[in-house]
Amino acid sequence: MRYPVIAGAGLVLLALVCLGQTAAWAAAGAADRPHITVAVTDSGLGGLSVVAAAERSLREAGVTADIDLVFCNALFDADSGYNSLPSREAKVAMFDRALAGLAAECRPDLVVIACNTLSVLYKDTAFAARGAVPVIDIVDCGVDLIASRLPAGGPGAVIILGTETTVGEGTHKSALVARGYAADRIITQACPQLASCIEAGFDSEETTFLVDAYVGDATSGFGGAVPAPLYVSLNCTHFGYALGAWQAAFAGHGIAVDEVLDPNQSLADEVRGWLGAHGATAVPDGAAAGRVNVRVVSMPEIAPAAIASISRWLEGVSPATAAALRGYERRVGLFSTADLRPGVGAR
Q: What is the pTM of this model?
C-alpha cells in the first residue's frame, strides 16, 4: 500500500533520520524525539483490539519516535449507536461530528477507522472531503483478507458477518464482485445487538446464544450442500472478541469452516506499515528508542461491565491497552449530538 506523506515537524525530523542522521539522533534525548499521534476510532470498544495489536507490535519491534495511540470512542450515547439513527444521512452527519471532535482532541497525524460501520460511511463525511489528515479504514483490509484466501474463479464461499449498516451498505460484497467473485458465493448476515452483547460479556451466555442464532441464520440455505472451501469473515471489530463462540457455533451446526478471518490484525499491520513508511519503526544502532503510549477517550460513560469484559480480553495482548481502558478519560461534550440523537437502539 502507498501511504500518504504529511509534513508535520515530527515527520520531517524522521525523514532526516532516514537520510542518515543517526549520530545526531543517538545524541538526542527524549525531548528531541519526534512525536506522532495515531487516533483510532470505533463506535464502541471493538477497535481497542486493533490498538492492542498495534501497541504490542510496535513495542516488540521498537520505535524511533514517541508514538501516542489514542483510542477515541465515536459512540455518542451509552444506550444507542449508529445503527439506531433514523437515516444514512444522520449516521454520516454524526460520524462527521465525531471526527471533528477527535481532530480537536488529538490533533492526529493519522486517523484509523477501526469500525466497519463507520468505514462504509466515511467517504461521505465533510472530514473526508477536506482530506486534511491521512485516514486508513478497515474495509479494504477485510476485502483483501478474503481475497487472499478464497480464489475469485474457484469453488467455495465466504460468509460476511457484520452490523446492519455494514451489511446493508454492501461495500464488502460489491468490492469482491468488482474483483470477479460471483455474487452467489458471498453470503451476508447482519447481527443486530451482538456488538453490545460482546462488550457486556464477550464470553457470556447471551453472546454465545446470539452468535449461535446468527450462524444458524447464515447457514440456513445450505441444506446438505456446504460450500467448500468455506471462509467466515468477521466484519465488525467487536466480533473477534468472541472468536471461540463463532468457532463453537459453526462446529455445533455441523458446518466445516476452513478459517475464520478477522481483519483487525491486518489493520494493525497497516498502522505499523504507515509508521514504517515514515521512518518510525527502525531504530538506528545506538539510538535511544522511543515509547508507545496508549490513551482511551470517550464522550459517553463506559459501563463497568464493558470495561471488565474487554479489558480482560485485552490483557492477554496488550496490558497497556487494558490499563488505558480501565483508566479511560471521559470527555463530555467531545462533539455535538444536537438534533441527531435517536432513541435507544442497536450499535
A: 0.89
